[in-house]
Amino acid sequence: MERSEAYGFSAAISGAFLLSCLLFSALNREQRAPYMDEAFHVPQAQAYCEGLFQQWDPMITTLPGLYLMSVGVVKPAVWLFGWSGSVVCSTGMLRFINLLFSVGNFYLLYLLLCKIHHKNKTVSGFQRILSTLTLAMFPTLYFFTFLYYTDTGSVFFTLFAYLMCLYGNHKTSALLGFCGFMFRQTNIIWTIFCGGSVVAQKLSEAWKTELQKKKEERISAMKGSFSELIK
């Protein structure tokens, strides 16, 4: 990454986070109580915060990944700062977890664009940053940044799994894919996609190796024929 691109990316992610914090603050002032499906998600997360892991709302159709992750994020605040469980597991604090996921999504999108287009010299650093902003602020995803829904965390683990897949860290990718599945069952499709990408890559490499082998055999045969003609 060039220095100018690094500065541009730092400015973009900082600006996006600042804007998100302002919108987050405004929404929480206007809507302190759980909104829409938060009426199911928030009480379930609060039950997990209290250690009631066997309690489950049958109206919830997703797996408990979001709630388990939330406990892992907010519980250290109880031990470090002495905050009460009612504070760290309040609706506002639980929503803030998705704000952190959104920053992670921004960074992962940028890394994915860099990895996918690293051989394309026509794509400038500015274009990568602008594309990252466009994807990270996509309305159907960005709206749920400010609510305690599974969307933002689900996208985070899916993007992370795909990035690890592209870098060849398949075990890490599988683990992250499982985390994404725990947020939303439909993410199994993206895990299969990552697996399919690996299979396609291996087949492509095997095909190229076979073609190269046949080419070398033809060259060897031609050299042999030429040697016979000289004799």
Automatic annotation (TrEMBL):
InterPro entries: Alg10. It is found in: Endoplasmic reticulum membrane. One of its GO terms (biological process) is dolichol-linked oligosaccharide biosynthetic process. GO terms for molecular function: dolichyl pyrophosphate Glc2Man9GlcNAc2 alpha-1,2-glucosyltransferase activity. It is an enzyme of class 2 (transferase). Belongs to the ALG10 glucosyltransferase family. Dol-P-Glc:Glc(2)Man(9)GlcNAc(2)-PP-Dol alpha-1,2-glucosyltransferase that operates in the biosynthetic pathway of dolichol-linked oligosaccharides, the glycan precursors employed in protein asparagine (N)-glycosylation. The assembly of dolichol-linked oligosaccharides begins on the cytosolic side of the endoplasmic reticulum membrane and finishes in its lumen. The sequential addition of sugars to dolichol pyrophosphate produces dolichol-linked oligosaccharides containing fourteen sugars, including two GlcNAcs, nine mannoses and three glucoses. This is Dol-P-Glc:Glc(2)Man(9)GlcNAc(2)-PP-Dol alpha-1,2-glucosyltransferase. It comes from Mauremys mutica (yellowpond turtle). The lineage of its organism: Eukaryota, Metazoa, Chordata, Craniata, Vertebrata.
